[in-house]
Amino acid sequence: MARLLLGVSGGIAAYKALEVVRLATAEGHSVRVIQTRNAQRFVGAASFAALSGAPVLTDEFERDPLRGAFPGDPLPDHDPAAHLGLTAAAEVFLIAPASANTIAKLAHGHADNLLATAALGAACPLIVAPAMNDRMWANAATQDNIALLRERGIEVLTPGTGRLATVGEWGPGRLPEPAELLAAVDARLAGGRWSGTRTLVTAGGTREPIDAVRYLGNRSSGRMGFALAAAAAARGSEVVVVAANVSLPHAPGIRYVNVSTAAELAGACEAEFGAADVLLMCAAVADFRPVAAVAGKIAKGQAQTLKLEATEDVLSALAARRREGQTVVGFAAEHGPGGVERARGKLAVKGLDAIVCNDVSEPGIGFDAERNAVTIITPDGERQVGPAPKRAIAEAVLDAVDELRG
Prior knowledge:
By secondary structure, the chain is α/β, with parallel strands linked by helices. The protein has helices at about 15-25, 45-50, 80-90, 100-110, 115-120, 135-140, 140-150, 180-190, 225-235, 260-275, 315-320, 340-350, 390-405; strands at about 5-10, 30-35, 90-100, 125-130, 155, 160-165, 170-175, 200-205, 210, 215, 240-245, 255-260, 280, 290, 310, 325-335, 355-360, 370-380, 380-390. It folds into two domains: about 5-190, 3-Layer(aba) Sandwich (Rossmann fold), CATH 3.40.50.1950; about 200-405, 3-Layer(aba) Sandwich (Rossmann fold). The protein starts with a strand and ends with a helix. The mean pLDDT is about 90.
């Protein structure tokens, strides 16, 4: 497996970094940890040393007992400076959490502690995972620093939104969950495996107008589709997302086509599908729409009979006209017992290479949730993944696509 260098800066989210080490070593990765002094105010070095099986470094002038080696590697015959030895041996460098202060240092080339100095001297891929209060995240200085890092080709993960460290505060700024952080590491280690490919992803849920203000829709937030897009882009693919009514932030380097209805989604997919090597049809497309939408607003209390007609089966139509070499993956939101069997039937009927089934009857996963649990079904078999963060699910789906494409 790989050598992962983990940098931990000061912040309450430092406790999540312990789980990153645990998960990474369980996967077989070899891990070394650098902490800032402020990070040790939240989590002690002994905890990281116990989980990684290697000494933790904090100071630029501190001697590394392993001479820059990672667990399992032979000791070098010389004693390099820690910030050079560790980064020379590392295959990927993850800074999580990255405080606003650390991000500012990285953006402007400061090197006043071991973590910042190591980042400045790193030749391996660098992934930065911000974590801070929502007001600090929204500050123009922080956003400018983030933009500067991304312009330099550094991968900066988007923080989550939710409960923050201070009692009663809620908003963007949460460190992504450990499984998501490790998924980002694994994707970067996959490198350019998808370089030269084009991936078309659909995300969100369509809305079919009833009148000028009402519609038939569903609860899909687009999180799963956006996670697939981010994972494919991290593997080097050129990614286009057809997004149906998604309000999530757009990631740099990914092209988005915004649509609303099933017909608009079908038109956008038809325009993009010919150039795609992989289609990940994750959007929740309405099965029915009103025969005719009312031009104005239906008055309250006015009796109505809503007549519906079937929408086009976008996925089947695309699969029917695919060219040689294209891989088509569908998604099926099923409810209750028998869902996997129903999804497997769609695999054959629609002519797909794989279908990803999730049971939306389970609380806390699926629609409009941060986590998911799925069964990935191919003609050769099936495997269950999760419950796990949607980015981790996305990586598992792309691994299945890798196997299909050989």
